[in-house]
Amino acid sequence: MSERAAQTTTKHQTSLKKRLKPLIMGSVSRVFLSWYRLKYGKRVSFGKNFVTNGKLVVKGPGKVILGDNINAWCQAEKNVFITFRPESRIVVGHDTRLNGISAMAYSTITVGPRCIVASTMLVDTDFHSTDPNLRHDPDAPFAVAPIELKENVWVAGQSAILKGVTVGENSIVAFRAVVTRDVPANVVAGGNPARVVKELETRES
Fold first, then answer.
1. Greatest extent of the chain over all pairs of C-alpha atoms, in Å
2. What are the C-alpha distances in Å from 149 to residues 47, 73, 96, 110?
């Protein structure tokens, strides 16, 4: 086979894979969605065109609301959503990519539309009192505050976003960052505790 013929064959194979991939992913997703709807019932609301390869875990009495066109096809870690009260809410906006998110909500966690969220932890509570004398008291009060990721936020892997944090539009949370305070729009935040390390330039359309 000539080099030109080999290149043509490779292009055809690549084109075929591109056409088949969404069909296969869609078929697999429909099977899992049927199972999830039976398993989780009204605790989970799925939007249109939800894509999954079965790595989805939902626990707790609260509500998980997933918007349209969410790609939750995981490469390694599972997508895990845990609520701790009937009033707890986890909401994920449309056109968002989830690849190993672990969201634990005592109050509310909101992931905006068009976000990219890798293997990060979002935790909206301390779970225990910070008072040393009350730390092991299950009835002691502890801090709780909602988390919100605005539109088009990108959260890299092995990071953590803690209670009360809002991440502004278009911003990036860097690999292994620990976010303890609000992040403004259009920046990169990195480190532990995370701080702004770069401002993002945007191109005019």
1. 78
2. 19, 20, 11, 6
Distance (Å, rounded) from C-alpha 42 to C-alpha 101? 21
Global pTM reads 0.88
Give the Cα separation of 85 and 67 in Å (integer): 22
Q: Are 145 and 126 in contact (CB under 8 A)?
A: no
**pLDDT digits 0-9 by tens, 155-192:** 999 999 999 999 999 999 999 999 999 999 999 999 99
Asked if 141 contacts 104 with a C-beta cutoff of 8 angstroms, the reply is no
> CA of 73: how far to CAs of 1, 31, 57, 125, 176, in Å?
37, 14, 13, 27, 22
Contact call for residues 32 and 52 (beta carbons, < 8 A): yes
Per residue in 124-153, pLDDT tens?
A: 999 999 999 999 998 899 999 999 999 999
Active site residue 12: no
Identify residue 120 by its one-letter amino acid code.
Answer: T
